[in-house]
């Protein structure tokens, strides 16, 4: 039985994209300074409280989704931003996101966050991880 030609190519493409640890989505590269951008982190805090805190804690504690303590140490910044911007595709194609979905049994809701806002949420998460 022959495989459909598109499937093998599609699987290889997904594996290549997922293997770089940056996730699936529009964010391919993130520029970050050594220190925390306090203004950006402050914007991120407001966004996090409005869009994320119903399902995520900044500790290890699980609510609906996983606790986010240490997330910026475990994941590349591009992965974090792509998960925020593109959660459905991430949980279908990215190995780490698939595993999280299997563990938590809840699809992360797409909050329609743009790249600029995702970057500020990332900065807030970085700030939290540095304070731990």
Structure, described:
The structure is a single chain. The protein has helices at 5-19, 38-51, 71-74, 77-85, 87-93, 95-104, 115-131. The protein is mainly α and 132 residues long. 33% of the residues are buried. The longest helix has 17 residues, at 115-131. The N and C termini lie far apart (55 Å). It contains seven helices and no strands. It has a single domain, classed as Cytochrome Bc1 Complex, Chain D, domain 2 (Orthogonal Bundle). 58% of the residues lie in helices and 0% in strands. Mean pLDDT is 89; it is low at 1-18.
Descriptive keywords:
58% helix, single chain, mainly alpha, disordered N terminus, globular, Cytochrome Bc1 Complex, Chain D, domain 2, 132 residues
């Amino acid at each position: 039985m022959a495989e459909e030609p598109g499937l093998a190519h599609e699987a290889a493409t997904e594996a290549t994209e997922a293997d770089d640890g940056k996730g699936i989505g529009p964010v391919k590269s993130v520029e970050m300074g050594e220190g925390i951008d306090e203004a950006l982190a402050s914007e991120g805090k407001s966004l996090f409280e409005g869009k994320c805190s119903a399902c995520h804690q900044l500790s290890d504690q699980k609510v609906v989704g996983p606790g986010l303590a240490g997330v910026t140490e475990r994941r590349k910044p591009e992965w974090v931003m792509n998960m925020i911007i593109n959660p459905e595709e991430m949980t279908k194609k990215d190995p780490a996101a698939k595993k999280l979905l299997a563990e938590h049994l809840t699809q992360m809701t797409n909050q329609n966050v743009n790249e600029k806002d995702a970057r500020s949420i990332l900065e807030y998460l970085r700030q939290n991880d540095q304070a731990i």
